[in-house]
Known about the structure:
heterodimer; A: mainly alpha; MetI-like fold; 14 helices; globular; B: alpha+beta; 20 strands
Amino acid sequence: xxxxxxxxxxxxxxxxxxxxxxxxxxxxxxxxxxxxxxxxxxxxxxxxxxxxxxxxxxxxxxxxxxxxxxxxxxxxxxxxxxxxxxxxxxxxxxxxxxxxxxxxxxxxxxxxxxxxxxxxxxxxxxxxxxxxxxxxxxxxxxxxxxxxxxxxxxxxxxxxxxxxxxxxxxxxxxxxxxxxxxxxxxxxxxxxxxxxxxxxxxxxxxxxxxxxxxxxxxxxxxxxxxxxxxxxxxxxxxxxxxxxxxxxxxxxxxxxxxxxxxxxxxxxxxxxxxxxxxxxxxxxxxxxxxxxx
Amino acid sequence: xxxxxxxxxxxxxxxxxxxxxxxxxxxxxxxxxxxxxxxxxxxxxxxxxxxxxxxxxxxxxxxxxxxxxxxxxxxxxxxxxxxxxxxxxxxxxxxxxxxxxxxxxxxxxxxxxxxxxxxxxxxxxxxxxxxxxxxxxxxxxxxxxxxxxxxxxxxxxxxxxxxxxxxxxxxxxxxxxxxxxxxxxxxxxxxxxxxxxxxxxxxxxxxxxxxxxxxxxxxxxxxxxxxxxxxxxxxxxxxxxxxxxxxxxxxxxxxxxxxxxxxxxxxxxxxxxxxxxxxxxxxxxxxxxxxxxxxxxxxxxxxxxxxxxxxxxxxxxxxxxxxxxxxxxxxxxxxxxxxxxxxxxxxxxxxxxxxxx
Lengths: 293, 357
């Protein structure tokens, strides 16, 4: 008996599937999938794998040496410091901006959205130049002030942090706004009618609802902060051991024909990217689960 | 707790949502705000809850001005149309939320919260679902949890925004009976918004009919149904037949139909409209004087105890709807295409200049 029922089930399932999909031969989907896969492998997987292959080309010893080299170490340290300053600031800003845009009506809302998008639209090199024009001690707009106080921003870590802040500003807000808008305000309103304060409403209702999108956007901000090249390159001045971040260090090694070392350091950034993709997938899945209602 | 709504006005951009609303809701009453979409009923409910701010006027709870109080301080229970349950919390946590977020001095102990939540779960008959998430519940169950969640803080006022609007017909009927019973047992002052006249007539102690930001009529279900003050209310509460005609010195003329209307003795050749409910249409097989109109039966629906008839007037081609008992229908032996004589048993005449419809 057990053998009979599944056959029937399968038949009805097949009928359903036939109704729902396009009436085409099997060749076309296979062909299209193959093209997509081949392109994907050529453009993404092969380069990604080659980074690691090249990095380990001359053995794990050289890989380790390239990473633990004092100058490389300083570059990693500067990158980590930049991340640890930029990510919290942009997370808080992004949360506030997304909250305001998604949950309230106010004048100038569209203007604010446009401003948030600005760093996406501006080339990173231009972004870097903006900061040079503002803060350069020789011809910057604030040069007299900076000289008087003895503050150095351009060709100093402060400039790198500023440039990175600018470039990574939109990520959190951009990720959260559509989700928060889709979720609406009724859960928050329900919490208010139950006597919850504004802060408790945010903590217990809003934050759990956007948790996964927030985690993903923080990861994205961190990855971009670690990998930013253009804007940072302009303001950095490439002073070894002082204003070199990981991507800048990779460029220097590469220009000095130290390919294995360059790829070894680059593989660190690649690992961050891979972790990022994994977290994005988990986050997407969790968001789908949450917005099922 | 009584609610007094005084002179409330609200404008969205250029749209006047509410215009000088005055309304007093007595302690323990169950009041329906009834109106078509865009009539301002939900806006009024949200203003009572403090979720929306009025441009002018005041909201008074038990004689105390609440206009400037925040939603949290008003202590109202609010049930949302789409439930607004906390998706990431279980049923239990949803209901417990109102108690858990109290400042630590006022917060009940864990055992007390537990007891109270189970009390409410029993009240809405959902004890076995405490550990479920909202996404695992049906619409009717979600709405009952939303109600339990609102009641946990023991509000003095319960506000319900289209509470049964998103449910299917059968569940809707069961739930509104249940709400009525619940209110009889625990008479919290309640206001609910609906666009469904049947729901309002079925559940409410009093009905407030809103249209375009204004109150058209306030009264018990019988009052508003039997004595609508104007054509809008007549139209909105159930089906009506419309007759266009003239009134002159107490005599009304609607095509071949002539009626005495003593209340319009002073009228001089005025255009009027008359309203009659389908169940107030009398049907005869033969004409008897001037009070009858000849009409042809064009549609019969004889399902259930009430038979619906659609007829076309012979004199001017206007349609008339009638509802008669099955017994009467059998006695008259009505058939499609038959010519019958129709008379409005009970009707009201409005002079349209007073009202724009």
